[in-house]
């Protein structure tokens, strides 16, 4: 463990692929640097391993019994009991076990794999997007010897910011702490608080730059890829209840910031906050779907990298041969739900499924994605909404239903959390337990949509995350891992509502 300073060189390597001129360039930042704490910089060439010397198995599909579906059958939901810890008496983050954290985040145990996480910048290629750099978080299944059980430190909040890639890390941290960025989640909230082992409410089990776990089965499987798109003015890591959870179940999950649409991101060493032309709504509608394609292309080229192609001993090896970029799902929240719908409409053959959370698809000025006018009515989709979502309002939440009803040629699902709102589909309770719009411990913070003028008491956010993750995981397992009759019970799970009808509306339109 070294005490590190922030005066570290900015980029270790900028690797361009000469074999394919259109392939995006992945710029690798030197991560795991913080101005205040001790960290270990990892050396992938020494830690990379394909070991089997652990008891977690490496199968693509763990069996039925290994997928915990949570306890959510009916009646327990109708009580007002909460599974959230009392923040004033809960143990400090440092003292919580991995399982305690997982339960506190999603109400579900962590999946069979420890989770690694890394930050890269994926740039556009020769497709007119050369200037579009995307700071991207990638969560992935890691080998057990890099897990928490071996006392590897979990990722601190500031590590996600990628401050070490900033030209001026001190200034970048100052901007991150401003009232529009991290301070915008709760008055007075700072990065330092989220980093503090005594005070932090930020929960994660992800290990920075842990060694990726390769699949050890005989069927030639690689991990399927999931791309996540954040909401407007949001931030790529504020959805870790979903992104980290999916990685623990055997997926590579990549989430970029959309520059101009994200509240904060760092590209080529410079902090970008909203403003200017790239933040015009119409421009964001154009940029965001292309960002998603850029990420898929970027990961596709990196997963084909050969460890001996050049002298760099970095992330090019991390994902080598581990990702199936022909088996991709797209998912996103709010404007990210619009983005997901638009990407599905591009009919990219690599994309096999989509999950849209409180999607703003009908707020778009350019397309009517929720109507029958869209191109693609066949890619399997799951639509999730909070009934009380006052950001979408009646008109736009209803268009999410229309999308499902108009999806004539493929499987579609609707999941609606009755006492949920717009922010139900985020991890914002980790910033602020009284965030509002679906996250609150009392009614006073949540305005009702179904009863205008009134307030509602949202379902405990941990329970909401459990519901979202149970259905979301089953859906992804069915459509991304369900090949060759491979089934872990997800198909059956998807057929019915497993929660009280008082709390959850669920509709499955399965075509075959
Ligand atoms: C990483 O490990 C390899 C193999 O042991 C070694 O040759 C190389 O110098 C190390 N690189 C760094 C940056 O420590
Ligand atoms: C949390 O714990 C504190 C201290 O014991 C107590 O005063 C408070 O009422 C508790 N809050 C809830 C919501 O239970
Ligand atoms: C919809 O997109 C999928 C890829 O996600 C593609 O296989 C399918 O052909 C598309 N549907 C239409 C009607 O083009
Ligand atoms: C998901 C959804 O449609 N939720 C509410 C949105 O508004 C309609 C009325 O237009 C309500 O019936 C829905 O419950």
TrEMBL record:
The lineage of its organism: Eukaryota, Sar, Stramenopiles, Ochrophyta, Bacillariophyta. The keyword Lipid metabolism applies. It comes from the Eukaryota. Pfam families: PAF-AH_p_II (PF03403). This is 1-alkyl-2-acetylglycerophosphocholine esterase. Coiled coil: none annotated. Residues 75-85 have a biased composition (Low complexity). InterPro entries: AB_hydrolase_fold. Residues 71-95 are annotated as: Disordered. SUPFAM superfamilies: alpha/beta-Hydrolases (SSF53474). Keywords: Hydrolase, Lipid degradation, Lipid metabolism, Signal. Its EC number is 3.1.1.47. Residues 1-21 form the signal peptide. GO terms for biological process: lipid catabolic process. One of its GO terms (molecular function) is 1-alkyl-2-acetylglycerophosphocholine esterase activity.
